[in-house]
TrEMBL record:
Residues 6-130 form the DUF1279 domain. Signal peptide: none annotated. Pfam families: FAM210A-B_dom. It comes from Triticum urartu. Residues 63-83 are annotated as: Disordered. GO terms for cellular component: mitochondrion. InterPro entries: FAM210A/B-like, FAM210A/B-like_dom. Coiled coil: none annotated. This is DUF1279 domain-containing protein.
């Protein structure tokens, strides 16, 4: 059964409990991503390592400033300008830090990463909902489970 069909079945069977579990997993995911991005963890490299395409990879390339055009000979430029100095050429770039600084902050990037992790969050929700629903029913915080 596909994840969306299983999620719909979960919502029909467990209702508010399934929604609460899914929102809780999402909030934990956004919080974890926000802390990681704020602490300058290269989330893009981690996503590439586990095989998930990082959100905004093309946007990160577009957000970087374009190099200035080279001056023409008739513009009064020096005849042999010095080559540009590239700082940190050997070290890998932290694309996450660059994107967080250029696109409005770590929270926006954490929400984008959360969207990319949807295929990971759905199975977690599917696995956690039944035991949490049983626990809440045992504590009499929710009514007994709906039968399908």
């Amino acid at each position: 059964m596909a994840f969306t069909a299983r999620m719909k079945d979960l919502m029909r069977k467990y209702g508010k409990v399934a929604l609460g579990v899914h929102v809780s997993v999402s909030v934990a995911s956004v919080s974890g991503m926000y802390v990681a991005i704020n602490n300058n963890v290269d989330v893009d490299a981690i996503f590439r390592k586990i095989g998930i395409s990082a959100p905004g990879t093309a946007a990160a390339d577009a957000a970087l400033p374009a190099p200035a055009p080279a001056p023409r000979a008739g513009d009064g430029a020096l005849p042999n300008p010095a080559p540009p100095v590239v700082v940190g050429q050997g070290a890998p770039r932290n694309r996450t830090g660059e994107l967080a600084a250029s696109s409005g902050g770590a929270l926006a990037l954490a929400i984008l990463c959360n969207k990319a992790l949807f295929p990971v969050r759905v199975p977690i929700t599917i696995a956690l909902t039944p035991p949490i629903a049983r626990l809440l029913a045992r504590w009499k915080l929710v009514k007994s489970l709906k039968q399908t």
